[in-house]
Amino acid sequence: MPQENDSPNPRRRRILQTIAAAGIPVGLAGCGSSDSTPTSGDGGDGGDGGDGGDGGDGGDTPTESPTPTASATPPETMEFTEGGTLRGSLGANPSSFDPPYSSGTPSSEVQGFFYEALTTNDKRGNIYPWLAESFELVEFQEVSAADYTDYMTTIPYAADQEGNVFLDTDAQIVTRDPENPSSPSEGDEGQALTVNEAGDAVADGTFGMQYQFSLHEGVTFHNGEELTAQNVVDSFVRLENSQVSAQVWQNFLYAEQVDEYTVNLYAQQPSAEALRTLIWSVLPSDHIDLPGGDLDPRAGTNPVGTGPFVFEEFSDSEFLRVSRNEDYWLQDVGIQNKEWFEGPSNFPNGPVVDEVDVSIVPDNATRASALQEGEIDVAGGLNAQQQTNYDDADGFNVISTETGGYLFFQYSVNVEPWDNQQVRQAANHLIPRQQIVDNIEQGWSRPAWTPVPEVAYGSGTTDPEALEEDLRPQNEYDPAAAEQLINEAGVETPIETTIETNSDNDNRVQKAELIAEAMNNTGLFDVSVETYEFGALIGRIFSPDYPSMNTILLVGLSGTFDPGSFCEATHHSRNIGQCCNAQGIEYPEFDEMMDNAKFGTEVLDDVEERASRYDAIWRRLVELSANSYVDIGLTVMVTNDEVQSWDTFPFPGGLYSYALYSPTDSQLTYVERE
Amino acid sequence: MSLRRFILRRLLLVVPIMFGVSLITFGLTKLAPGGPIQLIIGFNPNIGPQDIASLRAQYGLDEPLWRQYLVWIGNVLQGDLGEVIGSGRSVNGILLRRIPPTIALGLFGWVIALLVAIPTGIYAAVNKDQFGDDVSRVVALSGISLPNFWLGLMLILLFSVKMNLFPVLAPRKPLWHPDMLWYLVLPGLTIGTASSATLMRIMRSSMAQEMNKEYVTAARAKGLPERTVVLKHVLRNSLISVATVAAFLTSGILAGSVVVETVFNWPGLGRTLVQAVIAREINLIMAITLFTGVALVVANLLADIAYAALDPRITYD
């Protein structure tokens, strides 16, 4: 039975309660640095900071290993039951178990059982040393891509059949010369720094940042191999020219073994988000030389990591079974010996369930039935009605966390009359955000009064409430204001356009239709809705002609803990023709604002400064109205009441590994089955 | 023409048919906007032209269409159906794993369809224009009209969730295990319902037509029991048209598997095809289409052979 909406947003209230219960203040944390060591400031507050500050929401990356906060009062002990099997579910088949050769959510989810990295983070994005015992930012300096030109090699441009021109080299490119031709032709030459020369640059002292990680000794992979600094260095080799190489070498420069248990990681430029982008899964020696994609049981190689679960069995498109790693390295180290750990004294040194058995069930109605029937214990990805039904049912728990993503409108800013800012602002006033949340999402999202999800609050705004107070009037449903703006723009009405979205998301299609109706009811617009199957829509929006079409694109964006992820993808000119600047949005002055909020020593050292720069960005972003933000969703998981203490991570892709064992939040799921 | 030559000729026809099917499928898939590379890069703001070009070259997608097709068909002739771009997995391996569950489901649907259609059709024909015939007509019309996805969900809701008679998810047992056969009842019913309704109406009309023929009157005049007349003489002649239609209904069962396998989480070709189309995995789409095409040709061939078994007057020419 649907739950009554007796408050503006009951689910949002519940989320805030959850956060409050965790003892984490919502809002900006204090600056995380107390000494002369420069703070990275990327992503937020530096965890809990060396100053014993007030605890860190906001996903900041610290300059050194965080220590416990003075204000936290963790419970002395916690109750849990050991053993049992958790029967989970996934909505899609993992395409690969090979971390560098997969980017989908189901793949990330299954990889989370086996692989770990030098650091881990809590659900607010704060970073803590994990396989590393500690880390520190050793040095940083103002360096840009141009500073690497002395080390760059000359590479010819080649073109493929579709006319895409690219630097033709087999070596992984680290960065390109900014002076390379902006529209190169086949046969031209360009300069680039590849992995082969990156070490020379570092040796000469040319790098943006240097982090040093001290590894725990005695950490072993599932095959018994001991983790050393060489594994960390080699794991970057496997990332070269992989499916994620563009993300890795966005700012990564070089990995260097100092001794058996110490490794240096270098970033190209000083960036507030550098640490987060330098951290990748660490693989055993056996995995390094495998051809891309071959690290997969379907290709004959079972995943071997340092993680808390060991691979047992996988049946393609059917199920994955993993068991608890009985030789988990943390049992020797002891979670209580992690400096930053502030949880219960009896918090275990690894997950407590014996086995996790994940069924792959693509159809959400079938998944919901299997949960109801008791064949699985956990299900996610259900629709709003199903979630509401389970929320009202006995014997089930619905656990939600605001996700780092939103649904957004992108206007064809290069086509008349959408090149007029007032026209876009008028359309923005005709999005019935509250109605969408109440009626279509049934409270399982919140109106995007600002473009900033809670996960990015830390360094994304100095004051989320003030920001919302400031921006909400510009995002309220207000036909009168829309009419006034259209009159001021002096454009002919009704303005015709088409909202385009993907057909395989019922809620999204309903939202498109509701918005079109709201726009058409004013008589100012004549809007139709076109839906495309997801693959077709992707192909369409990345075609070169798309920015010249008179369309409004309605799609979703999932960001990260980096506040920049909620503006750069949709606005930065370097993302034109890629995700998610499909309409050719280009405002050089806004590009500079976004770059200045992430790169450079000023924001690296000063979280407050970075947050204030983002405040200015959000205000300018709403003023530009090149994109309108509709609603910010929740990540929702439903469990039966045999599953205890489940908590939901804000981003899909790490839901199981986070819920089962995450000491950063004293998170531990266990099963109590009769 | 001997039966052997007939079969050989029909099997040889598979070659041009499959060539045409592959050409059309390849062309249509390539014409559709989007592709696996775009889906891989689609939501990654850091991937630039260099990476896109590299990925395209890696999978030969930078070649002209005609060359891509020739490379593909050349590989197929050598038994290599290619790989899934998104995961690098072999299409041959996927096909080998997915075919048995689909065949099992299809056979189960077939058996259910025949078990329901033939007795009901006989009953309706024998009781033509009576109450039982009217009821069977309504049931048949309903069976044809019910969408697979709705029927499947309703069966799960009623028999699995409410009555707890069947599991929602397939047991992790070999296909021939009794638990698996029990599980297959609901998906088999779902996939067989529309076919059984159609077959039942064909059976009924064919039989009703046969019963008006002179040889039936003669048999009755000779004093043969009605049961013998119907089951021994009329039924055999009526089955010829049923066999014809049944072969065509194989396509319905294969098409239905796309929906039924998704609803029942059955790891067969239908569910894989849906995922392949969404991901624009052309090698997988082509392989499943080819298999489906071959299966249909073989089903029609078997129907032709069945004619001879049912009616010796039929010759192959």
Walkthrough of the structure:
- The complex is a heterodimer of chains A (674) and B (317).
- Chain A is an alpha+beta fold.
- In chain A, 28% of the residues lie in helices and 22% in strands.
- Among the domains of chain A are: 145-203, no CATH class; 402-633, Dipeptide-binding Protein, domain 3 (Roll).
- In chain A, the strands form seven sheets. In chain A, strands 15, 16, 17, 18, 19, 20 and 21 form a seven-stranded mixed β-sheet that branches.
- In chain A, a hairpin with a 2-residue loop joins β10 and β11 (262-267).
- The radius of gyration of chain A is 25 Å and the shape is globular.
- Mean pLDDT of chain A is 86; it is low at 1-61 and 67-71.
- Chain B has 317 residues and is mainly alpha-helical.
- Chain B folds into two domains: 3-77, no CATH class; 91-310, MetI-like fold (Orthogonal Bundle), CATH 1.10.3720.
- Chain B has helices spanning 3-31, 36-41, 49-58, 65-77, 91-126, 131-145, 148-162, 178-183, 185-211, 214-221, 226-263, 269-278, 282-310.
- In chain B, α5 packs parallel to α13 (282-310) and α7 packs across α11.
- The model of chain B has no long low-confidence stretch (mean pLDDT 84).
- At the A-B interface, β6, α5, α9 and α17 of A face α2, α3, α5, α7 and α12 of B.
- CATH H-tier superfamily of the largest domain in chain B: MetI-like
* Helical/strand content category of chain A: alpha+beta
- For the record, the CATH architecture of the domain at 402-633 in chain A stands as Roll
What is the gyration radius of chain B calculated from CA atoms? 24 Å
Our measurement of the CA-to-CA distance between the termini of chain A, rounded to an integer number of angstroms, reads 28 Å
Search tags:
heterodimer, A: 674 residues, alpha+beta, Dipeptide-binding Protein, domain 3, seven-stranded mixed β-sheet, four-stranded mixed β-sheet, 22 helices, 25 strands, globular, disordered N terminus, B: 317 residues, mainly alpha, MetI-like fold, 2 domains
